[in-house]
Amino acid sequence: MIEPFITHLGLVAPLDRINVDTDMIIPKQFLKSIKRTGFGKNLFDELRYLDEGYPGQDCKSRPLNMEFSLNNPRYKDASVLLTRKNFGCGSSREHAAWALRDYGFKVIVAPSFADIFYNNCIKNGLLPVTLLDSEIDSLFEQVLKGKELALDIDLPNQTVKALNGIDLKFSFCIDSFYKHCLINGLDEIALTLQDSELIKEFESAHAFKFPWTFGAIK
Amino acid sequence: MINKTLYDKLWDNHLIKSREDGSSLIYIDRHILHEVTSPQAFEGLKLAGRKPWRIDTNIATTDHNISTDISERQGGINGIPDETSRIQVKTLNDNCNFFGIKEFEMNDPGQGIVHVMGPELGATLPGMTVVCGDSHTATHGAIGCLAHGIGTSEVEHVLATQCLVTKKMKNMRITVNGDLSEGLTPKDVILSIIGHIGTAGGNGHAIEFAGTVFENMSIEGRMTVCNMAIEAGARVGLVAVDEKTISYCKNRLFGPNEYQIDNAIRYWRTLHSDKEALFDKEVELTADSISPQVTWGTSPEMVCSVTESIPDPMTYESLDRQKSYSAALEYMNLKPGIPMTEIRIDKVFIGSCTNSRIEDLREAAKVIEGKKISATIKQAIVVPGSQMVKAQAEKEGLDRIFKNSGLEWREPGCSMCLAMNSDKLKPGEHCASTSNRNFEGRQGSGGRTHLMSPAMAAAAAISGKITDVRDFLINDI
User: Fold this and answer.
1) What residues make up the domain containing B12?
2) Are residues B133 and B176 in the same domain?
3) For labelling alongside B280, which of A83, B72, B77, B346 has CA 20 to 30 A away?
4) In chain B, which residues have their Cβ closer than 8 Å to the Cβ of A97?
5) Residue in B437, B203, B32, B151 with CA at minimum distance from that of residue A117
6) Same structural domain for residues B203 and B327?
7) Which of B150, B166, B182 is the C-terminal boundary of a domain?
8) Looking at residue B177, which CATH number applies to its domain?
């Protein structure tokens, strides 16, 4: 069961690169955890710290890469990540969505996302907002100008609006199914199990047609 | 009659329900589990008091984080020195025992990298839907099944319901006609495709690979190609079933029994796109435009021919590209204009779900036989994809060829492809790697990866730098 997502108002942090992969979001050494939580301190570990990270480390005393945007004190309380195309490409690790969520991000704004990562966001109540390249450019322009950019994101109305007198307002597209899942914070398994009878019926017919796909693995 | 693509056919055969909200419920025939992306799913299942819907659909193994060192492997689970890895492997065993799921444990004869193990055991077959918490699940599409990676929440969902809630992808076809010349391999074909369409080129699509190049390719080769569909952005890669597929699949451990096989084959023969089927996107390449490929940057699309020089990022039109390509060159410590063949290599990795099958090892062994690796190579490892591949390679004497040349012969696992175990690069090291991702830090923090074919990696091992394998092959004639 995930927390429903309706609206969110938050400060924006920029990550000005294309094709950010999930290895970058959460490096492999942290995938050995058997939990869903605790990944936030290692989010973007290789970009964020100057030393090599390992699981279970006390990250407070590690040397920070001050050139990395999230280490800029201005973005300390950011909960909206603004980035470039094909965000989340590569490995299917859901740990990437868990790490972003655990760090405190609620919304990722980009021109496009990789398919599996997009799905993983939805399952974890993290809203991926897809905007046009030109719209992303104008948001980056504000942030890189040094302005504090806060966004008001409204999922039911599918709009993103800048605050503090910055005149930017965009609408975004999201599939009705994903929107429904996020707004209701659905337990998808419970929802699917409402169709148990239908699944059983399909399964029996399937077993009759393709018997070799049943029972071989014992 | 409606003309359908192969993807349409596979989809239609598994569609349980189209929901009003645009999502669909599809039935999953095979679910492969491994130690890294399953523990949280099992935990979720237990916390909710749920049970797996169907036990015999699941098959599990450990591959991602285990050691490939022979002496460490002999110690079994308790011999895993890293505590977090040990707990993760043990957690998979415990979960499989608890729920009664078939698992090939670390040193069992059937163990291997999930995407090598599945087809070779007949656990994945043409016409099936196959999912696994690993993006390279696209590999299995080489035998005409609908296979893709899923996240851990979806792993839990499939365990609990035998279904996946998903949306239909679009259809894309990549056609490559012609004949591949000597020294060219399936890896060169897929790297060349990725270079052509980019790492997001297949987003939202299922890619079918068609044309004479794939028709003439072995099943192992098709697996290499489909494996890297995800590196072109597509979750699904597919090749139509033909007689090669059928002869590969028909006598496998978990495949159809003698009473089922005729019906199975009859069905498998229908698994191809209809002649008039329409694709949302079509790309065509010719075999003669392909040469041995090597990556120079930090995304698989940053690739060129071994005969070329490192491109100048400033020659690209898009500003995004200029920036990311410049950053990649800085990370790789390379400069535009340098010939690829001048790049020195520190380590060599032959393995991964892309290139660790018997054919890959034969290809590398053919290049390296009777030669020694360069004295400047710090380490060169060959990691077979599965216990079955390892046994076959040893039967053919490939292990001796590698060892005699100075390469290490390891135990099966994912190894240096993602460096979750101790097989990794040190900062600054350049690696000739047959794996699938050259992302920053992928093979070890600060490591620099050059993706290439097994033959090219073997050639790099001999000369200590990136080398056109065709030079070796010509000398051999």
Assistant:
1) 6-166
2) no
3) A83
4) 151
5) B151
6) no
7) B166
8) 3.40.1060.10
Q: Is the pLDDT of residue B18 over 50?
A: yes
- Among chain B residues, CA nearest to A55: B84
Select from A23, A95, A206 the Cβ nearest to the Cβ of B27.
A206
**Which structure tokens are listed for B378?**
């710090």
> Which of the four pLDDT bands, split at 50, 70 and 90, describes residue B477?
very low
Q: Domain holding B417: CATH number?
A: 3.30.499.10
Residue A9: enclosing H or E segment and its boundaries?
Answer: strand A7-15
Cβ atoms of B29 and B129 within 8 Å: the answer is: yes
Query: What percent of chain B clears pLDDT 90, i.e. is strictly above it?
Result: 96
Query: Closest approach of chain B CAs to the CA of A187, in angstroms?
Result: 10
| Contact between chains at A91 and B437 (C-beta distance less than 8 A) | yes
Rounded to whole angstroms, the Cα distance separating B72 from B79 reads: 6
Rounded to whole angstroms, the Cα distance separating B190 from A83 reads 28
Mutate to test the interface with B, among A116, A144, A197 (most CBs of B within 10 A): A116
Residue B311 and residue B269 share a domain: no
- Provide the token pair at B395: 């039967």
Asked whether residue B433 is assigned to any structural domain, the reply reads yes
Average pLDDT on B345-349 reads: 98
Judge whether B280 lies within some domain: yes
Instruction: State the average pLDDT for chain B.
Output: 96
Give per-residue pLDDT as tens, A152-202.
Answer: 999 999 999 999 889 999 999 999 989 998 999 888 999 999 999 999 999
B301 and B284: one domain? no
For residues B165-191, one letter each, b for 16 or more C-beta atoms within 10 angstroms of the residue's C-beta and e for the rest, the string is bbebbebbbbbbeeebeebbbbbbbbb
Is B6 in contact with B144 (CB distance < 8 Å)?
yes
What pLDDT is recorded for position A177?
Answer: 87
Q: Label residue B131 by pLDDT band (50, 70, 90).
A: very high
- In A84-143, the residues whose Cβ lies within 8 Å of chain B are 84-86, 89-95, 97, 112, 114-116, 119-120, 123-124
Full-model pTM: 0.96
β partners of residue A108:
A81, A128
Contact B437 A85 (CB under 8 A): no
Residues in B closer than 8 angstroms to A177, CB to CB, are 19, 21-23, 167
Q: In chain A, what are the domain boundaries? A: 7-186, 190-218
- A18 vs B: CB within 8 A: yes
Smallest CA–CA distance from A201 into chain B, residue:
B16
Across the range B13-21, mean pLDDT stands at: 93
Q: Assign domain A7-186 to its CATH superfamily.
A: Aconitase, domain 4 (3.20.19.10)
